[in-house]
């Protein structure tokens, strides 16, 4: 995996093969950040990266100047890898080892962007809990965006606060906003 833009553009990051992850492809990541670039100033954002895995998305935000990034994952190996990578590149990324749903239930912070990349084989009820908890607990700033990455075979358009989706290869991003 590589960082596609910003201060660390072109840097390769090699995650251990034993991590239970599926990093977002470069093509999908580039398309996502093109969308975000039209709506946000990266250096002003607070970002929450759920099911963070390798930290791939967080590194992109940090490379573009975001100073407030929190990664949540329940896998110790993933958290350790993100911490090591963030330290090596001196990136402003904090990590929390936690079940994502428990974190969302107890969090009281607000974020401009919440990115969630849960396992593609989640049941619909698990996918639906993400926006449900984010909006019920008011974790998203007024003009913020919740982005859920999922397979193109999963349709999240019927969930509350759904705004639109974009497909890139086998990846799909569904965007949710405050109504």
From TrEMBL:
GO terms for biological process: rRNA methylation. Pfam families: Cons_hypoth95. Coiled coil: none annotated. One of its GO terms (molecular function) is methyltransferase activity. InterPro entries: DNA_methylase_N6_adenine_CS, RNA_MeTrfase_RsmD, SAM-dependent_MTases_sf. It comes from the Bacteria. The keyword Methyltransferase applies. Keywords: Methyltransferase, Transferase. Gene3D superfamilies: Vaccinia Virus protein VP39 (3.40.50.150). This is 16S rRNA (Guanine(966)-N(2))-methyltransferase RsmD.
